[in-house]
Design goal:
Layout (H helix, E strand, L loop, with lengths): L6 H6 L9 E5 L4 E3 H17 L7 E5 L4 H12 L3 E4 L6 H11 L3 E4 L4 H7 L6 E4 L7 H4 L18 E7 L7 E6 H14 L7 E4 L6 H14 L2 E4 L5 H7 L5 E4 L1 H8 L14 E4 L6 H11 L4 E6 L3 E5 L13 E2 L4 E5 L12 E6 L11 H6 L7 E9 L5 E6 L4 E3 L2 E3 L1 H8 L5 E11 L3 E10 L7 H8 L11 E5 L12 H7 L7
Parallel strand pairs: 1-10, 3-4, 3-5, 5-6, 9-10, 9-11, 11-12, 12-13, 23-24
Antiparallel strand pairs: 1-2, 7-8, 13-14, 14-15, 16-17, 17-18, 18-19, 20-21, 22-23
Length: 506
C-alpha cells in the first residue's frame, strides 16, 4: 500500500489510527482514545471535502478549547488545508481582519460569537459554520451517517500547515506561515531533548490557539504517543486536584506564580512529575528558586516564539540556570549581534538572531516585511535582546521591538495606541509594559486628553471592548498633561517605564 507523503499527518496521526490507548483525559473523568479521536477527525475531513475545500485553502476557527478543535486541526492537515486558530477573546473587528487578510474559505465559531459571525457574513466566498465545545452545530449537522475515509493529501515539508497571526509594530497583525517541516522538525527535537515517551501524561492547561499549547504541548504528545490531561483553562484548584496523575506539566510563568501562592501545592503533590516546563514569557530567577524550594523541582525554562517555535532550552540532564533560557536546541543556530550585524563576545548584550528548520516561512502576503526581518545569510531577527555566558546559556534581557508579554501572550503597544487614539477626547497615548505581580508584565496606558475633554478611564475601557481582545486592554490607565519626548520629538517610553515601574506593585 502506497504511503502518501504528508509529514504532519504521517508523524502525528497515522501511527494512532488503530490505537486504543487514551489520548485525552478530561477533567470531568471522561476520556478519549486515539482511535476515536482519529475517527472523529476523519469525519471532519469528509465534511471539509464535501464543502469543496482543497489543498492550500485556509480554515479559520474561533472556538473555546476542546478536543473538537484538535480534530479540526487534524482534519485540516489530512486534506492539505492551512489551519488558522483564533483566540476566542478576539473581537469581531479583529476576526474580520484575519479572515479577510488570510482569504479564509471556512470560518468555524460558536453561536455565542454572534458579533464575529455578523462581521464574517460580509466577506465574499466565505463559508461560515458553527460548533460548540461538545461538537454540536451546523458543521456537524452536515455529517453523513456512513463514514468513508477521506484520502490523505500529499504535502511537502515546505508546504504551509498553519497560519498564526501576531501583532505588529505598525498596528497591523502579521500572519506567520508555519510549514510541515517547521512543526515536525521542532517536535522531534523537543521529544528527544525532553525525553518524551509513550508513558508520559502531560497536564495541558494552556490555550491551543497559541504555539505553546498547540505546537509544543499537543504535538509532542501526539509524536510520542503520550496522553494528555486536557484542562479547558488554568485554574489552581483543578491543577492541584489532577497533577498527581501527570508526569509533565507545561505552563507560563503566571501558572507557577499562582501555584506557589497555593497552600495545597507542595512536594508531596508533585512527586509524580518528572518535568516542569516554562515559556512564552521570562521566568523570574526568584520564581525559579522559590519553586525548587517548595517542590524540589527545577523548572526547565525554554525560549521560543510564534515565528520560530522553540529555539533554546535548559538541559533535561545538567545545570538549569535560573534567569536563563538555556542553550540553542539541536539544529538551531543562534547568535548575538550588534546593530551592524557583527557577532558579539560572550557577556555582551545584543540582538538575538536564529536560523534552522524550526524558523517560519515568512509573513502571509507581506514579502517586504519578511525580507526586512531576515538577514542576507538567512537568520531571522527575533527582536529580542540577550547575551550568552561562557557556557553558551542565553539570557533574555529585553526587547528592541516594542513588545509586551503579559500572561504569556504577545501584545504590541501600537495596536492599542491606535485604538485608544480613536476615542473621542483623547489627544494621544503611549502604551508600555511594566512589572505585574501576576501576569509578568501589565499593559499600562499613559494618555493625554484634548483640552476640556471629559474622557475618563471607564469611557476608554468601554470603547476598547469593541476594538481589542481582553488580554490586550490596559490593566491600568494614567492621564498626564504631556508625554516625555526626546529632541527629535519621539516619545521616550524608557522614561515612562522608569516613572511608572511600580504602578502594579506599589
Amino acid at each position: 500500500m502506497k504511503i502518501i507523503k504528508n509529514p504532519l499527518y504521517n508523524h502525528l496521526f497515522k501511527p494512532h489510527e488503530e490505537s486504543q490507548k487514551t489520548f485525552i483525559y478530561f477533567n470531568d473523568g471522561k476520556k478519549l482514545s486515539y482511535s476515536l479521536f482519529i475517527e472523529r477527525s476523519q469525519k471532519y475531513a469528509e465534511i471539509f471535502t464535501e464543502l469543496e475545500l482543497i489543498c492550500g485553502d485556509r480554515i479559520a476557527f474561533q472556538l473555546d478549547k476542546s478536543a473538537e478543535c484538535l480534530s479540526i486541526v487534524a482534519a485540516s492537515i489530512q486534506i492539505g488545508c492551512i489551519f488558522l486558530p483564533l483566540n476566542p477573546d478576539y473581537t469581531a473587528e479583529e476576526v474580520s481582519f484575519f479572515l479577510r487578510d488570510s482569504g479564509a474559505k471556512l470560518f468555524i465559531c460558536e453561536m455565542k460569537n454572534f458579533e464575529s459571525i455578523r462581521a464574517a457574513q460580509s466577506i465574499k466566498n466565505l463559508n461560515i459554520e458553527t460548533m460548540d465545545k461538545n461538537g454540536l452545530g451546523t458543521l456537524t449537522f452536515k455529517e453523513r451517517v456512513s463514514v468513508r475515509k477521506t484520502e490523505v493529501a500529499e504535502r511537502d515539508e515546505n508546504d504551509i500547515a498553519a497560519l498564526l497571526y501576531t501583532s505588529g509594530t505598525t498596528g497591523r497583525s502579521k500572519g506567520a506561515m508555519l510549514t510541515h517541516g517547521n512543526l515536525i522538525s521542532n517536535a522531534k527535537v523537543l521529544r528527544d531533548f525532553w525525553k518524551f515517551t509513550s508513558k508520559d501524561i502531560l497536564l495541558n492547561a494552556l490555550p491551543i490557539f497559541h504555539t505553546h499549547g498547540l505546537f509544543v504541548a499537543t504535538n509532542l504528545t501526539l509524536l510520542a504517543g503520550s496522553s494528555m490531561i486536557f484542562l479547558p483553562k488554568f485554574e489552581v484548584n483543578e491543577v492541584t486536584r489532577l497533577i498527581k496523575k501527570a508526569t509533565v506539566m507545561m505552563g507560563v510563568p503566571t501558572f507557577y506564580v499562582r501555584l506557589l501562592a497555593s497552600n495545597d501545592f507542595n512536594k508531596e503533590l508533585t512527586k509524580s512529575i518528572r518535568l516542569f516546563v516554562s515559556g512564552s514569557a521570562p521566568l523570574l530567577a526568584e520564581t525559579h528558586k522559590s519553586f525548587e524550594a517548595k517542590t524540589g523541582h527545577k523548572i526547565l525554562e525554554r525560549y521560543g516564539m510564534t515565528e520560530t517555535n522553540m529555539n533554546t532550552s535548559n538541559p533535561y540532564y545538567g545545570l538549569r540556570k535560573p534567569g536563563t533560557v538555556g542553550q540553542p536546541l539541536p539544529g538551531v543556530e543562534l547568535k548575538i549581534v550588534d546593530e551592524e550585524g557583527i557577532a558579539l563576545k560572550d557577556g555582551d548584550v545584543g540582538n538575538i538572531l536564529v536560523k534552522g528548520e524550526n524558523v517560519f516561512n515568512g509573513y502571509w502576503n507581506l514579502p517586504d516585511k519578511t525580507k526586512e526581518d531576515f538577514t542576507e545569510d538567512g537568520f531571522f531577527m527575533t527582536g529580542d535582546l540577550g547575551r550568552k555566558d561562557k557556557d553558551g546559556y542565553v539570557e533574555i534581557v529585553g526587547r528592541n521591538k516594542d513588545l509586551i508579554i503579559s500572561g504569556g501572550l504577545n501584545i504590541f503597544p501600537k495596536e492599542i495606541e491606535l485604538a485608544i487614539d480613536q476615542t473621542i477626547g483623547v489627544m494621544e497615548s503611549a502604551v508600555i509594559g511594566v512589572v505585574h505581580p501576576d501576569f509578568g508584565e501589565g499593559v499600562l496606558a499613559v494618555i493625554v486628553k484634548e483640552e476640556n475633554s471629559e474622557v475618563n478611564k471607564s469611557i476608554i475601557q468601554e470603547f476598547l471592548k469593541k476594538k481589542l481582545a481582553k488580554y490586550k486592554r490596559p490593566k491600568g490607565i494614567i492621564f498626564v498633561k504631556e508625554l516625555p519626548r526626546n529632541s527629535m520629538g519621539k516619545v521616550q517610553k524608557n522614561v515612562l517605564r522608569k516613572n511608572y515601574s511600580d504602578h502594579f506593585t506599589a
